[in-house]
Amino acid sequence: MTQSITNHVEQESQAAETGRCPDCETDTIVHDPDRGERVCRECGLVLSEDPIDYGPEWRAFNAQEHKELSRVGAPLTQSMHDRGLTTTIDWRNRDANGHSMSADKHGQLHRLRVWQERIRTKNAGERNLKYALSEIDRMASALGVPTPVKETASVIYRQALEQDLIRGRSIEGVATSALYTACRKEGIPRSLEEVTAVARVDQREIGRTYRYVADELDINLEPTNPRQFVPRFCSELDVSKDVETTAVEIIDETTRQGLHSGKSPTGYAAAAIYAAGLLCEETVPQRAVAETAQTTVVTVRNRYREQLEAIDRSPAT
DNA sequence: ATGGTTTTTACTGCGTC
DNA sequence: GACGCGGTAAAAACCAT
Known about the structure:
Elements: H1 2-18, E1 29-32, E2 37-40, E3 46-49, H2 63-69, H3 103-120, H4 124-143, H5 147-162, H6 171-185, H7 192-198, H8 203-216, H9 230-237, H10 241-256, H11 265-279, H12 286-292, H13 297-311
Antiparallel strand pairs: 1-2, 2-3
Helix pairs in contact: 4-5, 4-6, 5-6, 6-8, 10-11, 10-13, 11-12, 11-13, 12-13
The structure holds a DNA duplex.
Family: Belongs to the TFIIB family.
GO molecular function: DNA-binding transcription factor activity; zinc ion binding
Pfam families: TFIIB, Zn_Ribbon_TF
């Protein structure tokens, strides 16, 4: 047990030096100093988060600058309904010096806490937002997407709320489609099916709401590139690195010819992985790729035949 | 609402282990 | 016989008009 943990940590620290993702094995680690995270752009694996910054917040060269730059308070976050800005009253019945208090002070503090919470979430809009953001948080965790996606989803939801797009639609529906949009926007796509699996509303509503919100907020996203699914599917299928790179090559080459337009990206990615398996002489059953991509063997067959024809390479015999 | 395209469902035949 | 693969037809889903 201890051994496996140690290995895992070693693996991660090694990745920190090379910039290589230990999960999907691509050189796509990006560092986001604002969020204090290192994330793989391909598969969304978070390698490290919230490191402690031991240095000064900013460099200041004289007293004046120091005064201007210093500040207090927690960093802002979009994923709390008040951006983490309001006062929170500690639940411990201790004073600033850590001493316990008298009984009537206890009661006073309790009442303060209750009212603070009431004020914090005083109107319907804020309760609405609070609920939506907790839903986004829950689903994002279930999908295993990194914090930046959560923040983006929160921003989208706020915009939708501001423009009064929620009216007549369910909070869950809008929250879910915000998350779906955020995943695509951040280049860590999750299929509508995958999002639906962790959502409390059905796929039709998510799709419908997504289109509506994206349209109203002028969010114009390119159709998802199938190659973005490859690393994740490959690691789920446990295929060799060769197959993965070949699959990406197939996708790049065939999409350049425009073969992918109008086709479902997940099915397309699945087919490319299967085709890559043939070319690398590594057996990857159609059934397996279809299942992980949440599509059918028929779709895999149709796509992969087109792809192989397009790149004009038949499987090695 | 309608028509065109894609995906899914369901069924079948073939070869291999 | 189970399994993987291929093909097909019809139904369902999707999208633009």
